[in-house]
């Protein structure tokens, strides 16, 4: 049984009239396909199961919702946006093998995504901060291929994909928003491949810190002072470095006067020079 935090899913068809005679069924059932669509069923399930927190005061609203929907009353978004769940540190948001039903966005907190090799080794494929989407890797096959784990006590919104897709048919800005999200994933993957393939250890650690700085800046947080929610071992797993190497590179950058480390608290002293490493 999956230990992923429970989220609403599209319910199975319900044979309400299964036992009725054929003619009786014809009399009480519509003759055309005017029942709820998969998107409507997904939204209805979300309304029943997930607490509705609302998007009005969410700090991630502008990153999550396209401009065309930002002025829509909260009631108009119920069942699609704002289906929030609290996920404790170390708990799964979803697991590899789970059916793809929702996209997830971090309302607060942070997470990591993990790929499991056949021999049991784990590879961290990314770290996510508030306002970032996860789960899109399941779109191709209909099944998630990664584990998504909370790095700290977090709040995660589940967005039923069928409902979002249905809404996008009549909203071009939402279509562009979805395309941008997918494009962002491609760019992120390309940057990670370049980082792993052509950078030395010091450059990898510097690029990692610069990337976090940029993402925090986009969210209105300090780009020069932030907590590293992941362990140094996890950073090494993501960067393809050993724990000792990560620690050594952080110490080297600190000696160069580019950063200051105090436990998990990072302070970037010279962002321009760090970008040039």
Give me some keywords for this one:
Jelly Rolls; 2 domains; alpha+beta; four-stranded antiparallel beta sheet; 277 residues; 9 helices; globular; Arc Repressor Mutant, subunit A
Question: If you had to describe this structure to a student in words, what would you say it looks like?
Answer:
With about 280 residues, the protein is of the alpha+beta class. The protein folds into two domains: about 20-185, Jelly Rolls; about 200-275, Orthogonal Bundle (Arc Repressor Mutant, subunit A), CATH 1.10.10.10. It contains nine helices and eleven strands. The chain has helices spanning about 20-30, 40-50, 60-65, 160-170, 170-200, 200-220, 230-240, 245-255, 270-275; strands spanning about 85, 90-95, 100-110, 110-115, 120-130, 135, 145-150, 155-160, 225, 260, 265-270. The strands form three sheets. A four-stranded antiparallel β-sheet has the order 1-8-3-6. The protein has a four-stranded antiparallel β-sheet with strand order 2-7-4-5. A hairpin with a 5-residue loop joins strand 4 and strand 5. Helix 2 (about 40-50) crosses helix 4 (about 160-170). The termini are far apart.
Task: Describe how the helices and strands are arranged.
Blueprint: H1 22-28, H2 38-49, H3 61-64, E1 84-87, E2 92-94, E3 102-108, E4 110-116, E5 122-129, E6 133-134, E7 147-150, E8 154-160, H4 161-168, H5 172-198, H6 201-218, E9 225-227, H7 232-239, H8 243-255, E10 259-262, E11 265-268, H9 271-276
Antiparallel strand pairs: 1-8, 2-7, 3-6, 3-8, 4-5, 4-7, 9-11, 10-11
Q: Please give the largest β-sheet.
A: 4 strands, antiparallel
Q: Looking at this structure, what is the CATH superfamily of the largest domain?
A: Jelly Rolls
CATH topology of the largest domain: Jelly Rolls
SSE topology string: HHHEEEEEEEEHHHEHHEEH
> How large is the share of residues in beta strands?
15-25%
Domains (count): 2
Question: How many beta strands in the DSSP annotation?
Answer: 11
Shape: globular
Level-1 CATH class name of the largest domain:
Mainly Beta
Counting DSSP H or I runs of 4 or more residues, the number of helices is 9
Assign the CATH architecture of the largest domain: Sandwich
* Low-confidence runs of at least 5 consecutive residues: 7-33, 42-52
The helicity comes to 25-40%
Give the strand line-up of the largest sheet: 1-8-3-6
What would you call the structural class? alpha+beta
Distance between the termini: 46 Å
Radius of gyration, Cα only, in angstroms? 22 Å
Averaged pLDDT, please? 79
């Amino acid at each position: 049984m999956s230990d992923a935090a429970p989220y609403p899913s599209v319910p199975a068809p319900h044979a309400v009239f299964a036992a009725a005679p054929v003619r009786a069924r014809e009399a009480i059932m519509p003759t055309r396909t005017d029942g709820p669509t998969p998107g409507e069923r997904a939204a209805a399930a979300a309304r029943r199961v997930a607490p509705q927190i609302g998007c009005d005061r969410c700090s991630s609203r502008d990153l999550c919702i396209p401009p065309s929907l930002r002025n829509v009353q909260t009631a108009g978004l119920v069942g699609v946006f704002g289906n929030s769940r609290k996920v404790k540190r170390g708990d799964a948001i979803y697991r590899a093998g789970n059916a793809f039903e929702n996209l997830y966005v971090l309302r607060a907190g942070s997470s990591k995504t993990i790929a499991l090799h056949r021999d049991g080794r784990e590879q961290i494929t990314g770290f996510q901060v508030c306002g970032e989407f996860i789960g899109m890797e399941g779109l191709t096959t209909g099944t998630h291929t990664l584990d998504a784990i909370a790095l700290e006590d977090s709040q995660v919104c589940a967005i039923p994909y069928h409902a979002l897709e249905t809404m996008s048919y009549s909203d071009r800005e939402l279509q562009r928003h979805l395309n941008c999200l997918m494009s962002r994933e491609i760019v992120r993957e390309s940057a990670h491949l370049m980082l792993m393939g052509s950078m030395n250890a010091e450059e990898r650690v510097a690029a990692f810190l610069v990337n976090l700085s940029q993402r925090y800046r986009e969210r209105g947080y300090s780009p020069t002072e932030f907590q590293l929610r992941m362990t140094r071992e996890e950073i090494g797993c993501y960067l393809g470095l050993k724990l000792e190497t990560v620690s050594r590179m952080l110490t080297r950058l600190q000696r160069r006067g580019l950063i200051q480390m105090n436990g998990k608290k990072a302070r970037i002293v010279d962002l321009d020079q760090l970008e040039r490493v």
